[in-house]
Amino acid sequence: MGKVAFLFSGQGAQYVGMGKSLYEQNPTARQLFNQANDLLSFDLKELCFEDSQNLINQTAYTQPAIFTISQMALATLKEAGIKPDVVAGFSLGEYSALCAADVFSFTEGVELVAKRGELMGVASGDGKMAALLGLDVEKATALCSEASSKGVVELANLNCPGQIVIGGEAEAVNYACELAKGYGAKRALILPVSGPFHTSLLKETAQNFGQLLKMKNLNQPKLPIILNVLGDFYHHDLSLIDLMIKQMATSVKWEASIKKMIEDGVDTFIEIGPGKTLSGFVKKIDRSVKILNVEDVASLEATIKALQN
Length: 309
Hints:
Belongs to the fabD family. The chain has about 300 residues and is an alpha/beta fold. The protein has helices at about 20-25, 25-40, 45-50, 60-80, 95-100, 105-120, 135-145, 170-180, 205-215, 240-245, 255-265, 275-285, 295-309; strands at about 5-10, 85-90, 125-135, 155-160, 165-170, 185-190, 225, 230-235, 265-270, 290-295.
């Protein structure tokens, strides 16, 4: 077997019931969940397992919840003796990857991600995001260039071949969606998110978040990590804090990140945290690699079994 990469889920992967079987059946996972619950200003158990107030899709709640569930799943993998050769995470998931690489502790991670979610939740303004299906980067860039006559619209997430997400001011994003078919897009879908994440409209929010980051005593990563902003490995001569600040207002280079890992010898990807969104992206990038996921007790057991064979 070649190298193993751990990939951590981003926002949008949340669902009611996430993490429940890990919480009920694994003492380490339960301890992490309870630690996070003590730190947060809301009832994490109610949010993740019942969500009677319909808060799970609100950024300020979603981000710390997904981070916690991802760290619970990671802890169960570690207990099983499964270790990564490289880590990466999609947007919010990058914080789970940084925590996995010991850049900060779990409790510091909960605090950082809660603040990140809170700031991004109020930064939305009139911005929105849309997925473009069937366009390459060149055509999507040209489309954004034309649509920018109506306001800011930029490439936000470069997910996989044929799937690019754009973000910006509402009028400009709507206009880009109208123009998309003329550029060869199969579809253009407005996404149910609260703001234009990973665009320059979040620069000020990113700088505000940076104030908190700069107060933290962050460690250098103890594992190879690929960062969204770079689409490549982080090297110690770069400023990690600057890249973390930049991430909120810069494109997520996910396709480049996965290709870089494969180039480096990764042939097994384990998606950690709720859902299988990233697994779908990896499949579209390279069908020859092994893709597993861990989000509950059943998928943990299936992943352990698959790695033993």
